């Protein structure tokens, strides 16, 4: 299976594409069986289909991975598509399934035309002029007068009479179904890329730089008309007078192609156009252009929203807001259907932020608007301090429901009352990113060679970072006043001293930061990266590789929405957030007791942690890790959790520890390993027993700074020996022995430690 990154993202259980659910690529060919059922083809083998007149499209899975440039049929019973590398494919079920037809060539095909149910033509590079006489099951390359020329388009009026246009301004004509051809050089050497035979006598051809030629004598002679200034690759007529030409721009004719008028309302970079009836037509092109007319081309509308989405905010599972190509959209079904707010009062909406389902703020050109009724109405809010053109407010950033910031290219403005009133706090050029780690500490990044600014007092004063050598900065994010990140010039930079020094984080590229929840944050751009520990570590989200994601907004650590180019909307939801260990440390207490402490940001299905130890000695290195304890987990939680474990009475030496996190289903994962050293004692010492008083057992600890003959003896108050716990030579170290008093009466007892250089006694109480 071939991975095609701009194709619809199948749900991985974490990332699910909501829109557009078809390949977000460039489309080259379109064919409609009738007004409702149609197919479009494009780059990387894209084939999509609609059965409801373009109201919705769905993807047809293929493995071709080549640009399919042209598609056609006579009556829809057999549909033929062709493209690069000599690819010819055929469908007999209205485009649901396809099979390959052997072409015998590796040349790229450009255009197809069927004249009858059986007879059709297919032209392409290298003087390819293929003809079928069996409805497209077999194709044979025909002899033509030119060799090695690109044949760009073909137009037959009937089975006998037709044209092929080619490079260097040539037009081939046949009057006997391709048995013979004559060639006419039309004007200069500019290529002719599209041709249309209107009647037996009239035909029009268009090409590079808008080269426009016309014949009114059946191709005996061609008249150069003008240069229209655009390059055309497709022509379609509704009747003998009315037609459209598409390419870098779209033009319309009402006089049979003799003159053309630029249609500024139609899209650029259109690749193909087709009419399924007198009123209904479709055109396709670059960047997921799929547009339709029901008025014979007088007006066109999108069948798929293919805007470049730059901002998103969901207030609940169903209600969300999107910014795309400076338009504002709303969804009430979780992002599946988008509704453009054509009555939004501001110009060029560019950012969005909502406090709840009803109350939200939108940044637009020069202005900020607020709604209190879920977008039914909007109120312009006062901005104090702007002089002249503020531009579009492209970012909204709120610390809480009261304090927020908005930036345009030249202004930073602040609100302290939830967006009711705004005040200019900074007026400089090149602004494109803002972040505050708290209500006082914030940064503003700037593009080009401009330097960033930082503030310590909530934006009342800003300090330009003139000594910072970074430039071409994009976005900024700080965990606190010291620890922060700037994405710039296709790299990510980190500071831990408030911006005095910076280091590059290898392998992470430029992008825009999501909001941070606990330690979870994304960096989205040409590639998307994720950190679960506030930027200490980053890893690439391979499911989103080359998806052209612009921004991700989190609703929680495990859910949110991603938006991007060509209408891309993706739902993020991870029901199996892993155990995220955000700290694991060891400290020594009371000389030979070791305390392990660790914390987690999230847990899923966590039964607990086994603590494993390995002593760093040649003997024990040959042994397995030893389990020395277990601490229960918290099951599933998205709140931070803190744990500790004490490993007591360790002998001198170096130790390694690791955690074995175990799920309820038995699966497990190891943490990193940490090392710590328990140093040898520096003096003799006998500790107080514990517990004390005791019943019936207690522990007695002592330490030896050197190898010693050692006796540990317990006496009663009469001086009678009760038991000798130790009588042997011991190595230097820490020792612990148990004393059992089950058979003894309550009372005071004395324990004594004797060595060659040390003698010490202590009292203990047995209380039954």
How would you sum up this structure, described in words?
With 768 residues, the protein is mainly β. Helix content is 1%, strand content 49%. It has one helix and 71 strands. The strands form 17 sheets. Strands 34-35-36-37-41-40-39-38 form an eight-stranded mixed beta sheet, with no helix packed on it. Strands 59, 60, 62, 63 and 64 form a five-stranded antiparallel beta sheet that branches. Strand 40 (411-415) and strand 41 (421-427) form a beta hairpin. Mean pLDDT is 94; it is low at 618-622.
Q: What's a quick, concise take on this entry?
A:
By secondary structure, this protein is mostly beta strands. 1% of the residues lie in helices and 49% in strands. The protein is built from one helix and 71 strands.
Secondary structure elements and pairings:
Layout: E1 15-19, E2 27-32, E3 38-42, E4 47-50, E5 58-59, E6 68-72, E7 79-83, E8 88-91, E9 99-101, E10 109-114, E11 120-124, E12 128-132, E13 140-141, E14 151-156, E15 162-166, E16 170-174, E17 182-185, E18 192-197, E19 203-207, E20 211-215, E21 223-227, E22 232-237, E23 243-247, E24 251-253, E25 261-262, E26 270-275, E27 281-285, E28 289-293, E29 301-302, E30 309-314, E31 320-324, E32 327-331, E33 339-340, E34 351-354, E35 360-363, E36 368-371, E37 379-384, E38 395-398, E39 404-407, E40 411-415, E41 421-427, E42 431-436, E43 442-446, E44 453-455, E45 463-464, E46 473-478, E47 484-488, E48 491-495, E49 503-505, E50 512-513, E51 521-524, E52 528-531, E53 539-540, E54 549-556, E55 559-564, E56 569-573, E57 581-589, E58 593-600, E59 603-615, H1 618-621, E60 626-637, E61 641-647, E62 653-663, E63 668-670, E64 674-678, E65 685-686, E66 697-704, E67 708-716, E68 721-730, E69 733-740, E70 747-754, E71 759-766
Parallel strand pairs: 37-41
Antiparallel strand pairs: 1-56, 2-3, 3-4, 4-5, 6-7, 7-8, 8-9, 10-11, 11-12, 12-13, 14-15, 15-16, 16-17, 18-19, 19-20, 20-21, 22-23, 23-24, 24-25, 26-27, 27-28, 28-29, 30-31, 31-32, 32-33, 34-35, 35-36, 36-37, 38-39, 39-40, 40-41, 42-43, 43-44, 44-45, 46-47, 47-48, 48-49, 50-51, 51-52, 52-53, ...
